[in-house]
Write a structure and sequence with these properties.
- Belongs to the transferase hexapeptide repeat family.
- GO terms for molecular function: acyltransferase activity.
- InterPro entries: Hexapep (IPR001451), Hexapep_transf_CS (IPR018357), Trans_hexapeptide_repeat (IPR050179), Trimer_LpxA-like_sf (IPR011004).
- Keywords: Acyltransferase, Repeat, Transferase.
- The protein is α/β, with parallel strands linked by helices and 246 residues long.
- Helices cover 17% and strands 28% of the residues.
- The chain is built from five helices and 20 strands.
- Strand 19 and strand 20 form a beta hairpin.
Length: 246
């Protein structure tokens, strides 16, 4: 699928589907999103997806990356789903990417490229500015990635990591509370609607005691479930840009 840039004429249409985006975002392949989410300027999205109530800031590149709900991705973050081979004669894509120089020499035989390793970013993840996430990494729900970190290994839920390479700084909560949070599946609920109803408990300075009120609200049906519509944004073979429900 061909790449394309978002433009001014697309903004109103995309907003009506729940995607807030400025002109100049590069879509390479197809882009999946849930309503609502938002993008900032100069992002590059290559076979990426973003779930509801998540946002990405300026100059972010997501390649073969899935982003969950309620995620916060700061400026200049790079998530690379592919890499160059280091055990081959050369790291050059001439050896494995037939499109690398076919504009000059036509199709040439190439070796099989290394498999793409998808990056999976769980719900409610916060990634700080200038962080880099390596191919194949899974970042668990509620994790925090420090600014300028290079994440080369999986990150467990609700861990705070930082550094090069990224290492665990501390856990956000006790193991017991983390298990309760994960079991509650709170990310399946529409937090803005819940807040608007004035029925959501105060979750600042979260403890086992205060989280019990969240569990009670979920179990009693007070918390409104989230039912986002998912869409695919892509360029057809005819050249026009299309949006379809998925």
């Amino acid at each position: 699928m061909a790449m394309f840039f978002t433009n001014d004429s697309m903004r109103a249409t995309l907003a009506s589907y729940g995607l807030r985006t400025p002109p100049g975002v590069l879509i390479d392949g197809s882009f999946h999103f849930e309503d609502p989410c938002r993008l900032a300027a100069n992002c590059i999205l290559q076979h990426a997806s973003i779930a509801a109530y998540s946002y990405i800031m300026h100059n972010v590149q997501l390649e073969h990356t899935e982003v969950g709900r309620y995620c916060s991705i700061a400026r200049n973050v790079t998530c690379l789903g592919s890499t160059h081979p280091t055990t081959s004669l050369s790291t050059s894509p001439v050896f494995y990417d037939k499109t690398s120089f076919n504009w000059r020499f036509g199709d040439i035989p190439v070796f099989e490229p290394e498999a793409t390793r998808k990056i999976r970013i769980g719900h409610d993840v916060w990634i700080g500015a200038n962080a880099v996430v390596s191919p194949g990494v899974t970042i668990g729900q509620g994790a925090v990635i420090g600014a300028n970190a290079v994440v080369t290994n999986d990150v467990d839920p609700y861990m705070i990591v930082a550094g090069v390479p990224a290492r665990v700084v501390r856990s956000r909560f006790s193991d017991r509370l983390i298990q309760r949070i994960l079991a509650s599946n709170w990310t399946d609920y529409d937090i803005p609607a819940w807040l608007k109803s004035n029925s959501m408990p105060d979750t600042r300075n979260l403890s086992e005691k205060t989280f019990a009120s969240v569990e009670n609200a979920i179990n009693s049906g007070v918390a409104p479930p989230i039912r986002p519509q998912a869409y695919r944004l892509f360029r057809r073979q005819q050249g026009d840009i299309a949006i379809e429900k998925i």
